């Protein structure tokens, strides 16, 4: 409980509409927030499965006009977001709706700021300017069970010119409303389901094992870890199972809350570095960074990591706490094998280790990690995550 000595601040103002069929409410909800919406989405899933048209039609039925901005890729770039922001200002949009995974929702959050502030979006991240006007309200409609962006105060941007991927967390980055409808994930392909589900898992395990963890964040994190462990395999292999999809969507929201309370650790830092260098999807970068980080971190808090092993369904009876804690990396590898994820970045052609280490080693990014880090240990962790063995221990880490 020592973390409570410095107090606790829990601010999670996003209203959540959770459950199958909740997308149908988007028109009525939007009509209470604005007259002209910008719908921020990508060209793939939302369009392919007809959700873009469905949202436009539901808004129209409730007297809300829509401007579609469907340029968002796997990692929203500064250029794309600035274009969306200019369009929102030119069209006079007073509401922004993000439809898709974390990329579309993060882009929507920044575009909502640009709708009322004529600035370059990167200046919001670095150096972190003060806003002159409040952003337009955001409705976040999540089509993946992973990033938790719909309930968190975080949003990430890619800056390919600087080869950086960075975000910020501010109260004004909370969505006004999150529509979390598991029916939207029924059409999510197995691979995306797998890596976005592991992102949710990491967003629970990392805050749970962070030096800043507290009883409130732990409550959300424990529930999320258990839900992912019990449902992700089914959601991947039986995509039409609404029960498993609903459980994964709840895990996503709960992990989003744990992330809102306590930041992630070095696995997310490494994953953003890989994402900046390769443009691979966020969830995949997180998934492949996590096992080596667990090997490195587990000795720093045996109680917490032993509990993670238990929550993940590992048989821990008769084991010492140390033995149980050290089971976590293997539990992740077994999960990846079962859900069809690769066992290292090397299989995906990732080679630029130097730049990844440089980005992940910037000062201040490791403050929440349960075990102290140096550039040398980060380099070993990156190497272990690239190597197919994915073992920090196997390449000589202690
Ligand atoms: Fe994440």
- In the predicted model, the low-confidence regions spanning at least 5 consecutive residues are none
Overall tally of domains: 2
Spatially, the strands of the biggest sheet line up as 1-8-5-4-2-3
**What's the CATH class label of the largest domain?**
Mainly Alpha
User: Tally of extended strands?
Assistant: 8
- Span of the ends, CA to CA: 28 Å
Give the SSE order as H and E letters. EHEHHEHEHHEEEEHHHHHHHHHH
The largest sheet is: 6 strands, parallel
Bound molecules: fe (ii) ion
Q: Indicate the CATH topology of the largest domain.
A: Dehydroquinate synthase-like, alpha domain
Strand percentage lies at 5-15%
Helical segment count: 16
Second rung of CATH, namely the architecture of the largest domain: Up-down Bundle
| CATH superfamily grouping of the largest domain | Dehydroquinate synthase-like - alpha domain
Rounded mean pLDDT is: 94
Helix-residue proportion: 40-55%
User: Structural class, please?
Assistant: alpha/beta
Shape: globular
Radius of gyration: 20 Å
Care to describe what's here?
The chain is of the alpha/beta class and 398 residues long. It has 2 domains: 11-185, Rossmann fold (3-Layer(aba) Sandwich); 190-386, Dehydroquinate synthase-like, alpha domain. The chain has 16 helices and 8 strands. α7 runs parallel beside α9 (242-261) and α7 packs parallel to α11 (282-297). The radius of gyration is 20 Å and the shape is globular. The relative contact order is 0.11. Residues 147, 199, 203, 268, 282, 286 line the site of fe (ii) ion.
């Amino acid at each position: 409980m020592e973390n409570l000595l410095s107090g606790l601040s829990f601010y999670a103002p996003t209203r959540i509409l959770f459950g199958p069929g909740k997308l149908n409410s988007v028109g009525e909800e939007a009509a209470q927030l604005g007259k002209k919406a910008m719908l921020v989405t990508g060209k793939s899933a939302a369009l392919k499965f007809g959700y873009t048209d469905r949202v436009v039609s539901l808004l129209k039925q409730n007297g809300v006009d829509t401007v579609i901005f469907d340029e968002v890729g796997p990692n929203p770039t500064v250029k794309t977001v600035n274009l969306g922001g200019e369009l929102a200002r030119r069209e006079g949009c007073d509401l922004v709706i993000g439809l898709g995974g974390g990329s579309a929702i993060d882009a929507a959050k920044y575009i909502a700021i640009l709708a009322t502030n004529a600035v370059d979006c990167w200046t919001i991240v670095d150096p972190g300017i003060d806003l002159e006007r409040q952003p337009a309200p955001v409705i976040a409609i999540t089509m993946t069970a992973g990033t938790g962006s719909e309930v968190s105060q975080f949003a990430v941007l890619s800056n390919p010119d600087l080869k950086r991927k960075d975000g910020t967390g501010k109260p004004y980055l909370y969505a006004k409303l999150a529509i979390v409808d598991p029916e939207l994930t029924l059409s999510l392909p197995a691979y995306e389901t797998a890596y976005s589900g592991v992102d949710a898992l990491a967003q629970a395990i990392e805050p749970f094992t962070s030096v800043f963890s507290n009883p409130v964040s732990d409550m959300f994190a424990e529930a999320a870890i258990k839900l992912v462990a019990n449902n992700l395999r089914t959601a991947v292999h039986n995509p039409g199972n609404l029960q498993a999809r609903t459980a994964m969507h709840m895990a996503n929201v709960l992990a989003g809350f744990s992330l809102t309370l306590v930041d992630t650790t070095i696995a997310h830092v490494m994953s953003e570095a890989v994402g900046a260098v390769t443009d691979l999807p966020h969830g995949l970068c997180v998934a492949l960074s996590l096992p080596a980080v667990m090997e490195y971190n587990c000795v720093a808090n045996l109680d917490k990591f032993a509990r993670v092993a238990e929550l993940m369904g590992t048989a821990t009876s008769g084991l010492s706490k140390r033995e149980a804690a050290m089971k976590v990396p293997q539990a992740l590898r077994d999960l990846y094998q079962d859900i069809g994820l690769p066992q290292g970045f090397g299989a995906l052609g990732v080679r630029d280790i130097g730049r990844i280490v440089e980005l992940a080693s910037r000062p201040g990014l490791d403050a929440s990690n349960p075990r102290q880090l140096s550039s040398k240990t980060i380099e070993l962790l990156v190497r272990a995550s690239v190597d197919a063995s994915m073992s920090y221990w196997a390449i000589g880490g202690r």
